[in-house]
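Consider the tokenized backbone below.
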């Protein structure tokens, strides 16, 4: 009887951190200047997926995969996604949208839909306004830290963060391979 109860509890915990089935991606957006409403070319978009593992004190998230892209002349980007996920513990994509001289956006894609009121949606395509910042605003905000993911999966975002650091008079991150 104890084995049956233990099995039931284990399955309840394990399955609560899994998705039965879902399609991951594609993720599409357009990045625009918040004031001029014009598209911003060259914005780096980093998509990171984490796996969630159940534990006694709650779930633990660990890096799974990442992909980068850059907005085109129309400010458009697309991240393919991981496709069909069946009984998986991979969370929806977490994005970081960054360009030197602008504010940045970050968060889980599903959170951008629910909680970021300034982001508008054309169907499944996010229209993401970024505000241009003065150097004083940029220094007050500070610089981004590099996400803890493999260097080869975030070369573009590291270069963009380093441009920001140099413009603020800080040393760039050293990229170790």
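A designed sequence for it:
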């Amino acid at each position: 009887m104890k084995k049956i109860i233990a099995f039931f509890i284990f399955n309840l915990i394990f399955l609560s951190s899994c998705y039965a089935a879902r399609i991951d991606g594609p993720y599409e957006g357009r990045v625009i200047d918040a004031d001029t409403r014009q598209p911003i070319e060259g914005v780096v978009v980093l998509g990171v997926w984490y796996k969630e593992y159940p534990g006694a004190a709650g779930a633990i998230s660990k890096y799974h995969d990442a992909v980068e892209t850059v907005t085109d002349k129309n400010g458009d980007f697309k991240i393919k996604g991981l496709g069909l996920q069946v009984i998986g513990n991979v969370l929806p994509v977490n994005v970081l949208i960054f360009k030197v001289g602008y504010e940045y956006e970050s968060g889980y894609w599903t959170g951008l839909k629910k909680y970021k009121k300034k982001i508008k949606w054309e169907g499944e395509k996010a229209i993401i306004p970024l505000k241009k910042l003065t150097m004083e605003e940029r220094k007050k905000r500070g610089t981004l830290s590099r996400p803890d993911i493999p260097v080869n999966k975030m070369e573009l975002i590291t270069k963009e963060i380093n441009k920001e650091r140099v413009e603020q008079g800080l040393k760039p991150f050293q990229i170790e391979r």
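Residues 144 and 161 are 7 Å apart (CA to CA).
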